[in-house]
Amino acid sequence: MNRKNLGDLLLEYKLITQDDLDEALRLQSKGEKKRIGEILVELGKVAEDDIQYLISKQLNIPFIFLRDITLDDDLIKKFPKDFLINNRIIPLYETNNEISVATNDPFNFEAINKFKEITGKDVNVSACSSKDILEKLQHIKYFYLGQLVESLDSLIKNLKKSGFYRIDFIFDKTLKINISGSFAFQKIYDLNIGQIAPEEILKYFQKFEYGYFYELFTNTNSFILFIYPILELSNIVFINKFGIFPDKMPLFTDLNYWGKLNIFKSELPKVGYNFIPFKQFMQGENIINLIDNVSGSLPEGVMLPVLCESCKGAKCENCNHLGYSFEVKHG
Ligand SMILES: [Zn+2]
After folding, report:
1. Taking the complete model, does pTM exceed 0.70, yes or no?
2. Is the same domain home to 308 and 323?
3. I need a surface site. Which of 115, 180, 219, 236 has the fewest CB within 10 A?
4. Total domains present in the chain
């Protein structure tokens, strides 16, 4: 096999100039973890089709449509995620003697040999397009994130009796994950997994049986996501920005909620739902939240809204122009 790299071959076939190659190499050395062919395509120096033609002509290997192939997650787990992502290479399947891999740069012999090293098997290489492999690598990235969230799940369950807790996902180039529990602030992960979407993290949490409150702050290339899992619905009664307090207080919060509880946010009371004025508990705050399905005993002083008797909801002086008056709930 001709041990040239893709850049040299593109030069030899006069598909790019030395200046093109230098420019691409300069970008690559600036830390962009991309293959040289990818950068040249992005710069518009060469077409993806030309690269594919060159690959099949030079190496005589099959070109596959990766998007039609279902990945084997168990096989992928055997290889370092960063190695796969940085080299744009994915294992597809293996037999007793062979492992099949796909890459958009089959001239990357170093990465291909690494598969031989790790498995001790012959490596069957197929070429695929950059677009396809980047899409599949996205799957790998989230597959690892999914695994991580799974392991957080057991950690969360262990924290059940440890006071308030919250999980922070702070993304800014890397993903930092902190867990707050028992008044100890513990940093547990700092991951380099590339750009991720906070919605993906929220989605992973929806696989679990419990619901969660969350807060999301996003910026151009960064985000902060706070997740407050709700493990014991009857015990969790007070949640605010600074944590979850399993206590015998009414539940109210201004966080967003996902899960089975019928919790919704509203600034106005609704007939038939417990109405708990936030400021009754938090001096100076003027936030009202409504909660339904809060089981267990509600404390003295919780108010239930009833249609104002004077105006029947039309809003008058007697009801402070709300259309409601309140009955204090006892017991
Ligand atoms: Zn009224």
Report:
1. no
2. yes
3. 219
4. 3
